[in-house]
Amino acid sequence: MRTVRRAIEFLLTRVLKSRLGVALGIGVLVLGVIGAARLVSGPVDPSAGLSNRPERPITTVDPEAGDDGVIATAAPPSPVTRPGAAKPEKVAERFVGVWLGGRGKTSDEWLATIRPLATPALAEKMAGADPAGVPAGRTTGPTTLRLRTESFVEALVPLDSGQLRLELVAPEGRWLVDVVDWERA
Question: How many Å apart are CA 136 and CA 11, to the nearest integer?
Answer without folding.
Answer: 90
